[in-house]
Design a protein that fits this description.
The chain is an alpha/beta fold and 426 residues long. It contains 14 helices and 15 strands. Helix 5 crosses helix 6 and helix 12 crosses helix 13.
Length: 426
């Protein structure tokens, strides 16, 4: 037994940012290292995501995670006991084999992922390393402080307004450091809050699931104009230090073969024209899930036509190699949204990220709309050097935890900010 051997694994339920239970795992090594990790949960989930195991009983409106917690405590824990926490792949592969299903439906992706993340964190701690250092060493990647794609205005399934598009983001590509970038995001967010409060009344101060303001708007144009005013009010300019990005999450408004957006029903061809107009009018640099998750063909056509715009695949790829390969083959999207819980283990999520990078795709590490204060993804984005992170508005503790972790990493290390490299691509 070495000090890196797993001595004990214990899971419990904790709450996520939407008051629903989620799994937290505490892992102890023989050397006395203790690491804790918690899993997030989405609302606008992709159809092909790994299965989040929920009890389906009356407790927590069916969303209890008792089974997932038990699976960690009585099945996964005993199996990985004695394994070396530095052997991430071996441990993840062991859990994948133990589950034996293609979508982790037996043990639950939430159960498996909580252990997988705790293993990585324990390995870093036991070796006296920061988590991002360990990730960068493990996957042979050069670290970078990521550009935050900050979702300052929420719509879709994350808000109680009539906006079809789920996320309206500001992207501080033109700033020199992460500190300056986050300052800009904060200043724009506060300007935006007063802009919408003036126009829509105090109700506009309410925030959505990812901390962005959620004013009673029903039109894309209105939302993007609000962002542009806020950028100017805060002393920046759209197209210079700041760019705009959207996550359409279009599967959520794809109804009976048409897209319901801004009070209209559009065919995929009409939606494609609409996106082109919006992108040109607002200097948008990145769009996520512009077409529904099964439409690789239209997504590919669009990606080719709007070059060099960043087209990010979230629900279409669900951080899974097989779907990403299909996308790469046909040229659907040119960036991968990397969400660890869509596939359910660190190894598989990073494998998808590395394949994307090898294939010339960009990678944006992402939170979920249901989050905890676990800041794992901040270190993941830095360690993998993806250059991009999506972690909500600079408001609400579970979002701010990631931003503050990134501030500390920049403060403690000489790792460069990715802004200029992203700006030159867009
Ligand atoms: P979700 O949304 O976490 O609710 O799935 C995030 C996203 O679509 O990027
Ligand atoms: Zn998305």
């Amino acid at each position: 037994m070495t000090k890196y051997a797993i001595a004990d694994v214990k899971a419990r339920w904790i709450l996520d940012s939407r008051a629903n239970p989620t799994v937290e795992t505490e892992l102890r090594t023989e050397g006395g290292t203790v690491a804790v990790a918690a899993v997030p949960s989405g609302a606008s989930k992709g159809e092909f995501e790994a299965l989040e195991l929920r009890d389906g009983e009356s407790a927590f409106h069916g969303l209890g995670v008792k089974k997932a917690v038990d699976n960690v405590n009585s099945i996964i824990g005993p199996k990985v006991k004695g394994m070396d926490v530095r052997e991430q792949k071996q441990i993840d592969d062991t859990m994948i084999a133990l589950d034996g299903t293609p979508n982790k439906s037996k043990l639950g992706a939430n159960a498996v992922l909580s252990v997988s993340l705790a293993v990585a964190r324990a390995a870093a701690l036991a070796q006296g390393m920061q988590l991002h250092e360990w990730i960068s060493k493990l996957y042979h990647r050069k670290p970078l402080l990521p550009v935050p794609f900050s979702n300052v205005l929420n719509g879709g399934e994350h808000a109680g307004n009539d906006l079809s598009i789920q996320e309206f983001m500001v992207v501080p590509v033109g700033l020199k450091t992460f500190h300056e970038a986050l300052q800009a995001v904060s200043e724009i967010y506060v300007s935006l809050r007063s802009y919408v409060t003036k126009r829509y009344g105090a109700v506009a101060k309410n925030v959505g699931d990812e901390g962005g303001v959620a004013p009673p708007m029903g039109n894309t144009q209105e939302a993007l104009s609000a962002l542009e005013s806020a950028i100017t009010d805060a002393g920046y300019s759209n197209g210079k230090e700041i760019r705009l990005a959207i996550d359409a999450a279009s599967s959520t408004f794809f109804i009976n073969g048409k897209y319901k957006i801004d009070g209209r029903l559009l065919t995929k061809e009409e939606l494609m024209d609409y996106w082109k107009q919006v992108i040109a009018a607002h200097k948008i640099m990145s769009i996520e899930d512009p077409f529904e998750q099964n439409d690789f063909e239209t997504t590919a056509k669009f990606t080719a036509q709007v070059k060099p715009l960043q087209v990010v695949g979230d629900d279409i790829f669900v951080t899974q190699i097989a779907r990403l390969k299909r996308g790469i083959d046909v040229g659907a999207c040119n960036a991968l949204l990397l969400k660890v819980n869509q596939v359910g283990s660190l190894t598989e999520a990073v494998d998808a990220g590395l394949l994307a990078i090898k294939s010339g795709y960009s990678v944006m590490v992402s939170h979920r709309s249901g989050e905890t204060t676990d800041d794992f993804i901040a270190d993941l984005a830095v360690g993998l050097g993806t250059g991009q992170i999506k972690t909500g508005a600079p408001a609400r503790g579970e979002r701010v935890a990631k931003y503050n972790r990134l501030l500390k990493i920049e403060d403690d290390t000489g790792i460069p900010y990715a802004g200029p490299s992203i700006a030159s691509k867009s």
